[in-house]
Amino acid sequence: MIATYGFNATLTARPGRGDELVDVLLTGLDEGSPAASEHCVVYLVCRSAADPDVVHVTEGWTSEEDHHRVFAGEAAQAIVARIAGMLAGESAYTDYVPVRGKAAF
Question: Residue 54 and residue 21: Cα distance in Å, rounded?
């Protein structure tokens, strides 16, 4: 599948909660979770090298509509609710249109 919609999010955890934030975000890969959807073709969770409480998430989706539909679901909303109390403030989001690239794990 090809990603036609994507975004990058930068989330800052409350001091000392970066590990917990990463762990919760990685549950997004579990069966039945948003990143396990056939419409999610990239889901990459990264940490800042300079600040362990800063986490970056890069996602690529088959379409913006698929992303919004999946994230409106119960599994995605449960993850959003779990991370809400871990964050030190508003997250920064940048949406984009993927052109070409590679992700292999």
Answer: 9
